[in-house]
Structures are given as structure tokens and as C-alpha cells.
Amino acid sequence: MKYPSGLIVFDMDSTLIGIECIDEIARLNDCYTKVAEITKAAMEGKLDFSESLRQRVACLKGVSESSLQALFNPIPLHPGAKELFSTLKEKGWQRAIVSGGFTWFADRLSAELQADAVIANQLEVSDGLLTGRVLGDIVDASIKASSLQALAKKWNIPMSKTVAVGDGANDAMMLEQAAVGIAYQAKPSLKRIADYCIDEPDLRQVLFCLESSQLI
Hints:
By secondary structure, the chain is α/β, with parallel strands linked by helices. About 40% of the residues lie in helices and about 20% in strands. The chain has a seven-stranded mixed beta sheet with strand order 4-3-2-1-5-6-7, sandwiched between helices.
């Protein structure tokens, strides 16, 4: 059996895409300022992520599920995302999206980039409207880190060949768990623990980090 060359796990919001989906949904419900402030504090590590997510999702009650399409048409990819995923696929890497965002967006992004796995939070919908609740366990920093481990085990990839890419405090444990942690246009708190920092908006720079770490 030929094993994958490695595993790379990406955050979604503000990492693979140029928006925070929850903030943009909030615009549809006239509560953008409130939600964006909570998001900023959570990404800076000033608020517990799970509790902050519940607070923010509660503000989205009543938004129609059909209206979400406008936020992802076209998908607001960061520059270089498609090229990065394509190159990594050619090199035999497993590519996963592990997000504290929502499956509605992550599943579509996964299809666009042909990711091998996606893990995210699920918004509860009733009669076509968001209820203001999240189903199941919230994908927080701990779940992100354990997901990286679980995916590596699933695909028989040693942890020495794992990479994590993110931008906020919720990604810190995942970056520390991986052999190589990459902070992409990240908050200062994440940059401090990352092995590499990318400050320009071009995800293809991830390849240079992998080359530098001798993983590709």
C-alpha cells in the first residue's frame, strides 16, 4: 500500500477564504457590528471560543438558509488556494479543512478545492430558517487539534509529516500539535507559536514553508 506523503489541515475563515462567514451572515440580520466584535475578541484569544460561537449564532436566528448562497457566489477564495490544493494533491498529500465555521460553507469549499476531509460546525435549520443554535459538539481549539491527530491516524500518516495552517487563536492547539504550524495573515498570538508566518495574501507561499521544512 502506498501511504500519503503527508497531511495538511487548513482553517477556513480568513485562511482559505477572505471572509469570516459568521460575520457576513450577521449582516443579513442587521447585527454585524455586535457579532464582528465578538469574533475579533475570540480570534485574539480574549473570549472562550465555544461560548463566543453560541452567542454569535444566537444573533443569526431567523436568517433564511437560501440567503447564504449570496455570500458564497463566487466562493471568496484567498489567492493561490486552488493552485496550492492542486499541487499538494499531485505530491500525494491528504488535504483537510478543519473549521470553527460552518458545514454549509465548508462543504462547498471542500467540493471546490477537492479536499479529502472536512470538519466544521453545523447550523440548525428549521423550516428554511436558522434557529440560532449549533448542532452537536462545537469545533473549538481542542477539537481541531484532536481532529488533526485522528485524520493522521486514519490515513496512517506519522505526526512528523503533519502541517496545520490557520489565522486565529482557535488554531493555536492545532498548529502546536502539527509537526509544522503555519500562521497565515494571522493574529499576533498565533504568530508567536507558529513555525512559519505568511503575511502576504498568497496561499502558494505555504509550499515554500513545506520546502523549507523538507516535507516536500
